[in-house]
Amino acid sequence: MDGMKVLVADDEERVCALICALIDWKGLALEKVGTAFDGISALSLIEQKKPDLVITDIRMPGLDGLELIRRAKEVQPHLQFIIISGHKQFDYAQSAIKYGVAEYLLKPIKQIELNQTLSRMKKHYEDLQQSHMAKQQFKDGQTYVRRTAFASFLKSLDVQILKPWLLDDAIHAIAIVSVHGQSSSHVIELLQEKLLQTLERHTVDNILNLYDDTLYILFSFKKEQAEHVEELCCMLMEVLKTQVQIFQDLYCSLALGIASDNLVDSLLSARQAMYQRLIKGHQQCFFAKQLVNYSIEEFLSFAASGFEQLCVQEQCSSQKFVSDLYLLFDQKKASLAAMVESLEESYQKAYDFVKSQNAGDMVNVLTRKQLMDVTSLLELKKKYESGLDSLLIAYQEGREANFSKPIKSALNYLNHNYTDELLSLEQVSEIVNLNSSYFSALFKKRMGQGFSEYVLQLRIQKAKELLVQTNLNIAQIAQRVGYHDPKHFSKLFKKQCQIKPNEYRKLYG
């Protein structure tokens, strides 16, 4: 098998020379096919030399590293890249992820890290070149099925789904990797690959899967391996720490559930352990010692009735309600897990309630996931209160819209049909699909006057316009505004305007 061909590109010649000097070309059986000091030259060499791997700086004249990757992959889709940069900004890494780049090295370059990365990429290259593709496909197929079964378990908590994939006479533990911070969803697949690379070097049977923007790992092992599994989790945490330094405002935590033959207990205990990050901080491992049983039904019931009462009372602030909820937590000596889950679940119920009431704009309202994307319990409490306040506003906007819609329809209908002498409240309430009594009360509340009074003023206003703008006689005008009897019209006009129709015409015509 031919050696892997490597091209090095950096806008500084001395950096190119340094990279080439640090690489163990002979030991890794790598072949250098050239160096380039700008993006255009690098692309030209890629087209000519057809390298298998390009080591490139993120910023270069001509074409920057990202543009070089994009254009090179159009020519050579399976070309691998290592990005070397002194820049830690997330936007660079995010753009590189889009193009399939999974390896990053930060300046100053370390020889061991560079050669370890090259070794991994060489192995990947060799795997792709293997002629025994059927064996690889079978392995991939098994991995896919195992991951799918694990995802189904996480969704349903049905252990039977995983039975065919669990080792006999083994105990199990589930670990959760939680990633929080700006744009975490864009990074998590990259972290998944990094964790897989570490797990592949260890003998403990595992299934790693990304489910609902969270990484889960299922370990199956003998009792005597329990300590080794904890050590492995600590190693995974070190990998995560190394990776997240590339990105801004990103936090990782790992929680390992209890070792048990009951997978559900291990999963639930891992979740409980993960809540410790809100007290003890991120970037560390948490190990569950036991599964704590508790109920949050009382808290959920209190929260649901309290929030709906705020909606009915048209309140804009949830401060007192939230304070009462926290007081209940204290009185019942609620555990950290019970508090967090109560806030999470009650917020989701409030969100669903507002949405079901044909709420207004929900775009600026926190989702459940955004609520839980916090770094401390204090931050969670603040977001919970502000989130409820936003929901109350959305609820009131929705109610306002629901009230306004039939009134707008009614006003539009009246504006086009005020000439109908038989026009009535019952007729219009039927048009807007409301009970006549409810429509009458709603109309008066929204318009500040009763239905009949509004219609009368509308007709008198139209009559004034006709008196000033036309030569129609009083009988014709009366008929035009919905009155068959001109005497009755004149009587109503005088009562409203304190002047007869003819006098109004002489005065203002």
Describe the structure.
The protein has helices at residues 13-22, 25-28, 39-49, 65-75, 90-98, 111-129, 133-156, 184-199, 226-244, 263-274, 277-280, 297-312, 319-331, 336-356, 368-372, 377-417, 425-431, 436-447, 451-469, 474-480, 486-497, 501-508; strands at residues 4-9, 30-36, 53-57, 80-85, 104-106, 171-181, 205-211, 214-221, 250-256, 285-287. With 509 residues, it is of the alpha/beta class. The protein folds into 4 domains: 4-129, 3-Layer(aba) Sandwich (Rossmann fold); 133-287, Alpha-Beta Plaits; 297-399; 418-508, Arc Repressor Mutant, subunit A, CATH 1.10.10.60. The strands form 2 sheets. Strands 2-1-3-4-5 form a 5-stranded parallel β-sheet, with helices on both faces. The protein has a 5-stranded mixed β-sheet with strand order 7-8-6-9-10, with helices on both faces. Helix 3 (39-49) runs parallel beside helix 4 and helix 12 (297-312) runs antiparallel to helix 13 (319-331). The longest helix has 41 residues, at 377-417.
Features:
single chain, 509 residues, alpha/beta, Rossmann fold, Alpha-Beta Plaits, 4 domains, 5-stranded parallel sheet, 22 helices, elongated
Please give a quick description of this structure.
The protein is α/β, with parallel strands linked by helices and 509 residues long.
List the helices and strands and how they pair.
Layout: E1 4-9, H1 13-22, H2 25-28, E2 30-36, H3 39-49, E3 53-57, H4 65-75, E4 80-85, H5 90-98, E5 104-106, H6 111-129, H7 133-156, E6 171-181, H8 184-199, E7 205-211, E8 214-221, H9 226-244, E9 250-256, H10 263-274, H11 277-280, E10 285-287, H12 297-312, H13 319-331, H14 336-356, H15 368-372, H16 377-417, H17 425-431, H18 436-447, H19 451-469, H20 474-480, H21 486-497, H22 501-508
